[in-house]
Amino acid sequence: MNPAACILGCSGLSLTPQERALFRDADPWGFILFARNVADPAQVRALTHELRDAVGRADAPVLIDQEGGRVQRLSPPHWRRYPAAAAYATLGQGAHEMAWLGARLTAGDLQPLGITVNCLPVLDLAHKGAHDAIGDRAYGASLKTVAALGRAACEGLMAGGVLPVLKHMPGQGRARADSHKALPVVEADWEDLERLDFAAFRGLADMPIAMTGHVAFSTIDSARPATTSEAVITRVVRQAIGFAGLLISDDLSMDALAGTLGERAEQARRAGCDIALFGGGDLAGSTAVAAAAGRLEGLSLGRARDALARRAISVEPFDAPAARARFEAAFAGHWAP
């Protein structure tokens, strides 16, 4: 049977018997880790093995948000810190190389742990007056800068055997509210959105995975955020941006969405999300999402298989200590670990 069209989280540092039974029966496509699931390298390796063992698939993806800056699930003392995206643009001509190198070093942290997907890069443009939920997580306000540094980050991750996730499609940089707490409504006209926000993603439409944003666009669908809007996913994500890869929802637990968790999963899938993501880690929520998301089939199944096929299993030799020294030297005076 095909896996369920969902990504689920777990509650702690190892699986409870109830979680193991749920994952065995529901068979989610993948999993996502948060800080609550992380103690030290040996523990994380054991947990990723346990998750895959529960579903009986050695290639089941394990995701994490390891952006750097404010959003970094792996932290000292066991892992190095990385700068927020905005710091790269301060480097001038060296920004592209360091964005690649930062992502490659991050992949070197993740891949040995069994983490195969990183929710990076953030391709939202930094707009004045927007809520700081994005803030320095954006590479900047320039379309050219965001697209170039985002591509460098994608290529750095993939060189290290980790798949990138473009977020938050089709653009959350204008949001004046935090989607964790409320539904942001963007009122910009189509022309401005298509020329700037959507264009940042269009330049990376060849990447394997993208994540939706819980943001409503009044000129397209004022009632529903992108995650649950068929109009946004069809007209913008698939057509205007031209993204043909695997589309996963942002976390369904956020207050920008309405309805029960099961209803949110069903709405996201009906709108065109290939995968419904719920990272809450509670059994009732995970059970509801898995049941409502249904099974991967058709185009969604093909996109999921194609995405996993893009991951490099054999990673080229890489002198991590020398690269890290060069990386940290480049940021002298701008950022320190």
Structural features, described:
Helices cover 40% and strands 12% of the residues. It has twelve helices and 13 strands. It has helices at 17-26, 41-55, 85-88, 95-110, 143-159, 190-202, 218-221, 230-240, 261-271, 283-293, 298-309, 320-330; strands at residues 4-8, 28-33, 62-64, 66-68, 71-72, 117-118, 163-164, 166-169, 185-186, 209-212, 216-217, 246-248, 276-278. The strands form four sheets. Strands 7-6-3-2-1-13 form a six-stranded parallel beta sheet, with helices on both faces. Strand 6, helix 5 (143-159) and strand 7 (163-164) form a beta-alpha-beta unit. The longest helix is centred in the middle third of the chain and has 17 residues, at 143-159.
Give the key terms:
alpha/beta, 13 strands, six-stranded parallel β-sheet, three-stranded parallel β-sheet
